[in-house]
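Dock nicotinamide-adenine-dinucleotide; give full complex structure.
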Amino acid sequence: MISRILVTGAGGQIGSELTCALRAIYGNDNVIATDLSENARAKIAADGPFELLDVMQKNNVEAMIKKHGIDGIFHLAAILSAVGEQKPNLAWNINIQGAMNVFDAARDNGVKRIFAPSSMAVFGPTTPFDNTPQDTILQPTTIYGMTKVIDELIGKYYIQRYGMDIRGVRYPGIISNATLPGGGTTDYAVQIYYDAVKYGKYECFLKEDTMLPMMYMPDCLKGTLDLFHAKRERLIHNTDFNLAAFSVTPKDIYMSIKKYMPDFEITYKPDFRQAIADSWPNSIDDSSARAEWDWKPSFDLDAMTLDMLKVIGERYKRGLIVNC
Ligand code: NAD
Ligand code: SER
């Protein structure tokens, strides 16, 4: 039984919501949220413990595990694709050395299970673009994708060499309304909803027909928790599960928003992120996740759009969204 959880990168887009979901299961005091950034404290310290933790400081990771008697870790601290292209050395160091520090500290201090997410960014232009298979060519062209391939492999190495239990999914682009994304290529699919509510128009940094796999946050949380709690005996894969919900283009999201906001307008001004998006899959085969731990998403594009516009719209009316 796992009872004491550490979350790294807890102030980010996924961590800020996953921490709440974990606290609902394990109890507020049993989920220790940590982040490099002090800004994270305001988002997540109200309901439970928060501590500053830089995953590059291995001794501090180890001390945190000991101090709180941690036996389960969600390792979310990372640099995402767009920031990674601007700062390749930073992405390499945090995504690879940070993960190794967490794995080493976990191994040496009796942590029973780690969830360390990967990304659809592990795929590249030589991978089949449609219904991308689970076990396929991994030749990404972004530094972020390269670090995620290595993390998947390091995780497998620690499983095979030290008998550890490390699990992960290749998230598609995650769309949410609580915390803004941290510098990825799929960020447009979040910003478009905020700009629709605030300005009635949006300028997109990808071309209108750029198809990418996406997922709404409630499905992301469900998939993350379901894999973490899945019976190990059933799992054939471990650090690298393909995960999918739906695939959309910017034009698809625009049309979906227009169903509820007929005056919404969009323009397109592709930038360096277009090349990143062009190297990623159109759609993903997640049949291994479905077979090995019963993965099944709930939200499609229109169901997500309705919820996004409702939540962001209500917050905007209450004056809680000023700049984003
Ligand atoms: P994010 O950028 O929103 O948050 C990352 C957090 O990590 C930030 O709060 C940041 O302050 C923190 N951080 C950065 N460097 C750190 C360090 N040295 N020590 C401790 N904390 C540090 O990212 P996210 O979207 O929440 O992503 C979480 C995980 O999911 C990452 O591994 C990411 O690669 C993966 N992922 C996310 C998406 C997505 O669409 N959001 C898609 C695929 C994979
Ligand atoms: N959403 C992430 C990014 O765009 C995918 O890993 O970087």
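Observed: Residues 177-214+246-281+299-317 form a domain with the UDP-galactose 4-epimerase; domain 1 fold (CATH 3.90.25).
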